[in-house]
Each structure stands twice: as structure tokens, then as C-alpha cells.
Amino acid sequence: QVQLVESGGGLVQPGGSLRLSCVASGSIFSIYGMGWYRQAPGKQRELVAGIPSSGSTNYADSVKGRFTISRDNAKNTVYLQMSSLKPEDTAVYYCNRYPVSGSWGQGTQVTVSS
């Protein structure tokens, strides 16, 4: 059973940047695709970005050109670099396998507000 711990969220002004991290344990990290997902109040959880074990990354249209997903298999960690943040990016951000499989971590809150 993989365990996921997200970190790096916070309060940031519009136009600012944040880098989220997710450490995975309990599985062979490198063979799985990993993704970042988010859930805003009153909305369904949605895919933000996915990175397969090999191959091209995938981004939601709303974040293309602003967010970058990457992974460090040696550290069992997946990152989400977020730039040019907008108020509509406010949400709890989660990581999980890509496609989704298994349980969710606690998430990390990202709030974009002036």
C-alpha cells in the first residue's frame, strides 16, 4: 500500500509561484505514473498534471504553460512547479498514481489571493 505525503502549499499572491512535493513510500515508485490532482471547494477533484514512468507529461488545459510536473525516482518524489498562479488555482492539491489508484494523502492547501 503506497503512502503519499504532500507538502509545499501556502498562501501566495496572484502571479506568484510555489513548488509542491509529494513523497511516496511502500511501493516501487519508478514503475508507476504519478499525477497531481486538485479539489476546489464545491468542485470535483480534477487532474492537474501527470507524468508516466516513461513518456510525455500531460497537463490540464487550465495550467498548460504555467505548471511543470517532474519526478526524482531516487527520492521517490514527484514535484509540481506552479508559476503565474491565479485565484482559480486555489484548491487542495493531492498526488496519486497516474491513472489514479489507491488511497489519497492529506493534500496540501494552495491559496492564491491578494
Quick synopsis:
With 114 residues, the protein is mostly beta strands.
Helix and strand arrangement:
Elements lengths: L2 E5 L2 E3 L5 E8 L8 E6 L6 E6 L6 E2 L7 E6 L4 E6 L8 E7 L10 E5 L2
Structure description:
- The mean pLDDT is 95.
- The chain has 114 residues and is mainly β.
- Strands 2-10-9-4-5-6 form a six-stranded mixed beta sheet, with no helix packed on it. A four-stranded antiparallel beta sheet has the order 1-3-8-7, with no helix packed on it.
- A hairpin with a 6-residue loop joins strand 5 and strand 6 (58-59).
- It contains no helices and ten strands.
- The relative contact order is 0.33.
Descriptors for this entry?
mainly beta; 47% strand; globular; 4-stranded antiparallel beta sheet; 10 strands; 114 residues; single chain; 6-stranded mixed beta sheet
